[in-house]
Amino acid sequence: MKFKVSQHILVPKHSKVSEKEKKKLLERYNITLKELPKIHKNDPAISELGIKKGDVIKITRKSRSAGEAIFYRVVI
Amino acid sequence: MAEKEKAEKKQEKAEIVEEKKPEAEETKQETAEKAEEEKTEEEKSAEEEKKEERMMEAYEQAIFKKVNSIVFGVFSPKMIQKMSAAKVVTPELYDKEGYPVDGGLMDSRLGVIDPGLRCRSCGSKLKECLGHFGHIELARPIIHIKFVDTILKLLRCTCKECGRVLIPKNKIETISAALEEIEAEKSLEQKRKEIKQLSSVLRAIKKCPYCNARQSPVLIEKPTTFMESDKKISPIEIRTRLERISDDDLSLFGLNPEAIRPEWMVLTVMPIPPVTMRPSITLESGERSEDDLTHKLGDIVRINQRLFENINAGAPEIIIEDLWDLLQYHVTTYFDNAVAQLPPARHRSGQPLKTLTERIKSKEGRIRRNLAGKRTNFSARSVISPDPMLDIDEVGVPKRVAMKLTIPEKVNEWNIDYLKRFIENGPDIYPGANYIIRPDGKRKKITDETKEVFLEELRAGYVVERHLMDGDIALFNRQPSLHRMSMMAHSVKVLTGNTLRLNPAVCHPYNADFDGDEMNLHIPQTEEARAEAETLMKVSTQLISPGFGLSIIGCTMDSISGNYLLTKELEFTREEAIDLLYSIGIDDFSRLPRKKIISGTEIFSVLMPEDFSFRGTSKNGEDVVIKKGELIKGLMDKANLGSESGLMLRELHKKYGPEKAINLLKRLFRLGIKVLLKTGFSVSVSDTDLPDEIDAQIKQTLNDAEKEAERLIEAYENRTLETFPGKTMLETVELKILEVLNKARNEAGRFVAEHADKRTHTMVMANSGARGNMLNLTQMAACVGQQAMRGKRIERGYKDRTLSIFKRKDLGPAPRGFIRDGFKRGLNPAEFFFQAMTGRDGLMDTALRTPKSGYLYRRLANAMQDLKVSYDGSVRDATGKIIQFKYGEDGIDVSRSEAGQINVSKIVGHK
Lengths: 76, 911
Description:
Number of domains of chain B: 7
CATH superfamily of chain A: RPB5-like RNA polymerase subunit
Structural class of chain B: alpha+beta
Largest sheet of chain A: 4 strands, mixed
Shape of chain A: globular
Order of helices and strands of chain A: EHEEE
Shape of chain B: extended
Strand content of chain A: 25-35%
Distance between the termini of chain A: 28 Å
Helix content of chain A: 10-25%
Number of strands of chain A: 4
CATH architecture of chain A: Alpha-Beta Complex
CATH topology of the largest domain in chain B: Barwin-like endoglucanases
Oligomer: heterodimer
Number of helices of chain A: 1
CATH topology of chain A: Eukaryotic RPB6 RNA polymerase subunit
Structural class of chain A: alpha+beta
Number of helices of chain B: 29
Number of strands of chain B: 29
Number of domains of chain A: 1
Strand order of the largest sheet of chain A: 1-3-4-2
Radius of gyration of chain A: 13 Å
Distance between the termini of chain B: 97 Å
Strand content of chain B: 5-15%
């Protein structure tokens, strides 16, 4: 069995953002994809999500200050 | 003669002006007239004003364009000649009258460095004319030292006969395509590496694939001689070979043939930098001292002329060769005077010349010293010392400094009399002034002679640079400036003495102490800068730290001890109480109870705002209650007054705002100190003396612990000790002994805490949190404890033992660095040695760690430079890229919350 990085305890949850939500996100922050933080398309954490360049990834992390923090990255 | 020339020059000036503004008939007339007259001050300024107007027009007409790309290249001889303002033919600088020689290195067409003269190329004056390049034509080609590597590479990789690259025709295209791909896919850096690789292969080729000429290896004899089969290749030959290389082949070497033709790397014409780049300085004796570059250029021109003459006269080849080599040496050292193989060119005094490369390179060079490093005027630096009588947001400035630092004040009809008084005082009497600035921008120094004139002419629109005075705003800073509280705005207080003074309460944000620390002072010069400093940087605005949400300024040291004693036990007569309160600036005693004897808490309560209620705990965990401005329970100590912990200070700040909070803090601070001044405060060795029976008990505790340790060691030697999982038996016994000894020392500490006299001032300091802690007291009174290095007991030194007075392989407490005595009783020699060991280790550690962590922090701070929280709560960099979607992931401003939490019920008003 292959080791799945995404299931490791230290890897936060990565999920794909739908086109509709993506549009909403960009509108909310009044940005284009250029201003978003990036993630490489070959990143092991998103290898199983069926991702292409330009998709946006939502990362749900545990946070010391806020309990749960949401982060977005654009695939490059 | 000189007179005549001057007049001529004036004429010239007038002509230039005429050319520039032919349509303004009147102006022309005026200026022309003026040029002939002897110029008076006023006329000069009128002319300048007109000049200014013209400059402004030029600015308004300026067209701005976006820079799309920059091409770096090598100057071609044609280009050098085209941009040259003058051809330099003689090494002479000035003629007998002291005027620059035409065609000399200081030719007046190359720019102006003397005030009053005009540039012959552009007609501008000093500081307006940036200078113009000149050129010299070299008698023979000279290798440019900075391009030796490139030239060598090109010579080796191309055919000496036909100049083609030594790659067969069919391969060229594939190789250049591959290079292009590398540049696009990877980086320019990668491409350069690839080219380097390629050229090392080409070196080995023996026969030209185009003309079949035999290739012989080119060697370099550093610094600038190229050899081929034991014969020197002359620069002329090199130049012709480089000329033969075709444009197409050049791109293989990463050279853009439009900007860089290789033959340009062998100089035939050399640019002469403008005089503004190498100004001469006039010494006090009136002698002129030329710049290093001028000296070097003089050498070049002189040898060059000699070479010309010799060639024209048909001198023997040897002499020409010698001169040629000498010229090569001079040109090389002109570019770089630190070439490894050459002796550096020196002054007559023997110190090496600073030529072009040295000007740019290294820490003292143009880039790191002048461009990356910035220096300021209107600043001061001195040793700091404490002055608790200053306000917290004040800074004490020595009078001497205050008379050098100035504030520009614009004259108007209301303040003219006020400002005239400063001019009357002049620069040497304290509230005086050093300069006045006329409306045309001319700065004039005030001296005893000029004073009267300035007083007469002073009118609205002038600016007076007056001395620094009480109440002026100054920025105060201590390096390392790690957080924003390292630079705060204080108001100035001019004092006698030579040190900068500050209230000890602000030591903490600056991380300053008075063991020789120095701090910087900057004086904002404009109204805007002062307003900004006051609203954003004033000490009172920095009270609550953005790092942990508590007051970063608080009482320290004596003021904590004083407030602690006051609220704990002190009592005063009413007269004493009033005396005390008045000395800290309180003159309203209506809140002081009308009793004969007034307790400390009642005095303290006078400071509190009448509607202030607070509930908290003191350092030892007891409740502190303030109700309606009265301290009704508990006492004041570090937990409520101290910096980085003062919960009460945060409440005060929140409720009453920064101004009032800082004012209150100032009074609290002074109250503490004044209390100590009144009651006296001193410490002695006997402060931590213990009763005899307690001493005996401590001794017993330590004896028991040592016996326990013996028992553990015995068990270890009999191999009967139960080992911890994952540890060897030796490790286990070490851990157990450590634990036993530590427990014993803690026990001893408890005895000290319980039985030492709490009224002694040593104990007061420790209990209030002013200075020192229980561990320090234990080490003095009872037992210093185990000395550890790298987390282990001391085990190295001699073979199998730490010191030669111990038995070999003795694992007992004493042989492994346990100090059972206290500092007060004294340490035995072995104990002393162990203490010295760990002490030294600690010093080493801090000395090595500080720069490391400093660098670490610097990198962090630089990486986060100009990040900011935008209005939607996201953190972005200067280009608008998102770094965090919500500041700190929770979007909370720590300085406006309670330790990062927002207490909703408190805001809403529920209990």
